[in-house]
UniProtKB/TrEMBL annotation:
<dbReference type="InterPro" id="IPR017853">
    <property type="entry name" value="GH"/>
</dbReference>
<dbReference type="InterPro" id="IPR031158">
    <property type="entry name" value="GH10_AS"/>
</dbReference>
<dbReference type="InterPro" id="IPR044846">
    <property type="entry name" value="GH10"/>
</dbReference>
<keyword id="KW-0624">Polysaccharide degradation</keyword>
<keyword id="KW-0732">Signal</keyword>
<dbReference type="GO" id="GO:0030247">
    <property type="term" value="F:polysaccharide binding"/>
</dbReference>
<dbReference type="InterPro" id="IPR001000">
    <property type="entry name" value="GH10_dom"/>
</dbReference>
<keyword id="KW-0378">Hydrolase</keyword>
<keyword id="KW-0326">Glycosidase</keyword>
<feature type="domain" description="GH10">
    <location>
        <begin position="8"/>
        <end position="318"/>
    </location>
</feature>
<comment type="similarity">
    <text>Belongs to the glycosyl hydrolase 10 (cellulase F) family.</text>
</comment>
<dbReference type="InterPro" id="IPR012291">
    <property type="entry name" value="CBM2_carb-bd_dom_sf"/>
</dbReference>
<keyword id="KW-0119">Carbohydrate metabolism</keyword>
<dbReference type="GO" id="GO:0031176">
    <property type="term" value="F:endo-1,4-beta-xylanase activity"/>
</dbReference>
<dbReference type="GO" id="GO:0045493">
    <property type="term" value="P:xylan catabolic process"/>
</dbReference>
<dbReference type="InterPro" id="IPR001919">
    <property type="entry name" value="CBD2"/>
</dbReference>
<dbReference type="InterPro" id="IPR008965">
    <property type="entry name" value="CBM2/CBM3_carb-bd_dom_sf"/>
</dbReference>
Amino acid sequence: MTSAQAADTPLRDLAAAKGKVVGTAVTGSKLTGSYGDIAGAQFGSLTPGNAMKWGSVEPTQGTFNWAEADQIVAFAQAHNQQVRGHTLVWHSQNPSWLTNGTWTSAQLGTLLQNHISTEVGRYQGRITAWDVVNEPFNEDGTYRSTLWYNGLGADYIASALTWARAADPAAKLYINDYNVEGVNAKSTALYNLVKSLKERGVPIDGVGLQAHLILGQVPSTLQQNIQRFADLGVDVAITELDIRMALPADSTKLAQQAADYKAVTAACVAVTRCVNLTVWGFTDSDSWVDSTFPGYGAATLYDANYAPKPAYYGVAEALGGTTTTPPPSTGACTATYSVVNQWNTGFTGQVRIACSGASLSSWKAVWTYGAGQQITQAWNATCTQSGAAVSCVNASYNGSVPEGGSVTFGFNASWSGSNPLPTVTLG
Ligand code: XIL
């Protein structure tokens, strides 16, 4: 493949040409229609968002529910996709029988070993990589106080990795955490752990950087951090990328988000051992962000109606895609000017502001008239004209344009000579 690819080349093909795999977290029940089409066409790897967690697969002790996990693995096989298994050992989303039980250290070790053997064994040969241990660290780099740490000590991590290796020798074994994307106390603790596990001969193949990021806050040391793990001799995956913004989204935020997604992708592309970049849901209609971080959202690559956002093109560009139809520079809200009625000295005009994949809480539409064009009166907006420059701001009641919605305003104006249609931009 050449390095330049058409914009409509699927992300998975762009990634493959760079030696990478681009993936997404998925919800099994949604894998039909547009959601299934995009999941299958654009991504080379799937991660079950919840389906493989202990609380999902063994809600009652000894009673297993593999339905959603099986479905996702089958979908992946049918679409020639890898599966990242997520996750075996965590402090969260465990079944209540486990968290409410009183266990001796020996019992806890047996429960964990059986859990890992059962789940990893079930999917043996079908999982490319397992997030064996999830979120073991506090922000200051100390171990998180969990059922596992408190019951088994820090070596629960080495034990879990060893049991996972025994159950599927081919699966790559990862430790996964958040806020470890840049160089900081937490990522340094993870670094030191991986270094010591390797020195001890404990099986560890990779680290997962979750990358639940905030708009405009891609760590400047991301690539450097990926590189230092690679230099330890392990693979790196961006495992749960999303970039949330304070709602409502607007064109400026969506452009920043595109730049942020592009920067994260570029950092992975720059390091050979960064093997996988997975987004935590690919549509704003299937993201954990909105319910988890009140007031934030619009964190993914596609809007809620499955239209690719500027962020999608940011990822594509970092993977070597050329954007043949660039997203409009004003983002996903556009203004269209039309003349609805015209007579010998005057005319009535209208501007429609429509949003797709974005929304506005206020707006200003500006344009430049030619000689002889002069606004005399406007409705549903306040318009001023200074020389040739026209500026119209929303009325108090129509500043809000929802995603997928539109507003219009109208005006009367005079003209002489000619009455050309100006280009309206949103400011
Ligand atoms: C999230 C899921 O996306 C949600 O649906 C669920 O309610 C909570 O967990 N870090 C992880 C993921 O490792 O498993 C979490 O997934 C998001 C944070």
